[in-house]
Amino acid sequence: MMNRLSMLLILLLLVACTTTAPRQQEGGITFVHLNDTYRVGAVEDGKAGGFSRVVTLVRELQDQGRDVRILHGGDFLYPSLESQLWNGLQMVDAMNFMDDIAPLYAVSGNHEFDRRKPDHVIAAVRASRFDWLGDNYRLNTGADDVDAALRQAFTFQSGDKTVGVFALLLAPVDGGNKRDYLEYDDDYVAVAEKTIAGLEARGVDLIIGVTHLDMWTDVEIAGLKARHPKLAFIVGGHEHEPEYSPGTEMSAIVMKGASNARVIWAIDVDFDVDGRATLRERKVTLDENVALDAEYEVLSNKWRARLLEKFPFLEARIGTAALPLDGREVAVRNAETNWGNFIADQMRSAFGEPAEFAFINGGTLRIDDFVEDDILFEDIGRTFGFSSFLRQTTLTGAEFRKVLEAGYRGFGPSKGYFPQVSGFRVCVDRSRNEFDRIVSLQVPAGERWVEIIDEQEYRVVVPDFLYRGGDGYDIPQDRPATPPGSELKYLVLDGILRAQAAGEEIGAPVDPRNPRYFELEESEQPCFVAY
Ligand SMILES: [Zn+2]
């Protein structure tokens, strides 16, 4: 009797299982998402990130029967050492290679439009085999074929399913590039909803977003899922570190990867027989455990050879690092680093007698790597992906403090505006309101440190970009200031060569007992306590 009952229970359970488990259709879609990539090759001596490892992952997924689509969240043409020579055509070549393996859809990032004239954008779009997407901006380059190439309310087929894609780019009001050949709509949520409604009307099975926006804007757009349930996820760029906002009934998932494909996302979408999509998203770290793709390496080596042809001195040794100098974006955009310190220190003497203060936005330092052992000319070329001319102005202590608050605004990690500094030390409480976070700003006085004097005037060296209000810094323009001069790249090169001639190594450790940047973990904690 008992046996029969348990048999019956088991049978009931089996029936329950087969009816509740979604019956999947064969071979779903896997989206592979990356963003903010500036290199044809990998970073950290080839050990981390890079398209080659992305290709390996894509091929593995295809071998498992997945329909792989590659999504790129923007920022690839500029800035880099190579883009100074080829204006991003080396990246287009690399992305075309990926597109040949699995279709690649890219939204433009702000850096695609770093050039004031449209010529190089025209060349890049014409050279692209992958799709350029954009719903809130239009190209008016004057080249009709290029302007028409930008896809709006894009859809693609996978088996019998249609996927709709909307794509949005940061407008100038939020830090995007203002250009004569670009027209923007900065009402992102409205454009997204209009595009989504259009895609729904066309009967698509799934809707996704590919964006180049600030994370909080993406999260706001993700809320459209409450009214548009087919909206499954948004993947984006612009931030250079992984970001994740989980999905609910009311909100789509938002994901971003780390720069240079150090960390990417793989998102499986499978449809059950009733057409309902199930998602499985996972963050994938591309390190030495992921093999390089032999075929891609041929392309990568081709561009390396071309680069050395143009700059045979690139691998020349110009100095020696005393310790690994940290130029990784995760470091220079979040905290004090020894490489940032060395550069900011050089800046102070850009105009003769050293200025009291200098600072530079971490986002100007583009190497995203360590500079170790032998310092090569290439390390300088990669650190400064674009020319950066300096200016010296004079500010009162009170003004300086106000200017610097902009460097500690906002929430979350990885801000390109985070400053690397020289000549002072600053203590910040991030739990306080924006623009009121500097708890203490101190300057040296003999052996001691004292609070900056509000009325006193200090000479300050900054990149011209920041002087003109870039990255949200509001520097008074009514003071005598030098014209833009002294290119930072050569100043740093000169600093290294002089040290080398004097038999000195470059770099000093960040001193935990006397940091230039100190972040309070709790408000009651004191600033700058030596231990
Ligand atoms: Zn960007």
Instruction: Enumerate the spans where pLDDT stays under 50 for 5 or more consecutive residues.
Output: 8-25
Distance between the termini: 75 Å
Strand order of the largest sheet: 4-3-2-1-13-14
Number of helices: 15
Structural class: alpha/beta
The major beta sheet can be summarized as: 6 strands, mixed
Tally of DSSP β-strands: 27
Please compute the radius of gyration using only Cα atoms. Answer: 26 Å
Which molecules are bound in this entry? zinc ion
| Overall average pLDDT | 93
Commentary on this structure:
It is built from 15 helices and 27 strands. The chain is α/β, with parallel strands linked by helices and 531 residues long. The chain has a 6-stranded mixed sheet. A 6-stranded mixed sheet has the order 6-7-9-10-12-11, with helices on one face. A 5-stranded mixed sheet has the order 21-17-25-20-26. Helix 2 runs parallel beside helix 4, helix 4 (89-101) runs antiparallel to helix 9 (294-310) and helix 11 (338-348) crosses helix 15 (488-501). It starts with a helix and ends in a 12-residue tail after the last strand. Helices cover 29% and strands 25% of the residues. The longest helix is centred in the first third of the chain and has 19 residues, at 2-20. The structure holds zinc ion. Zinc ion binds next to loops.
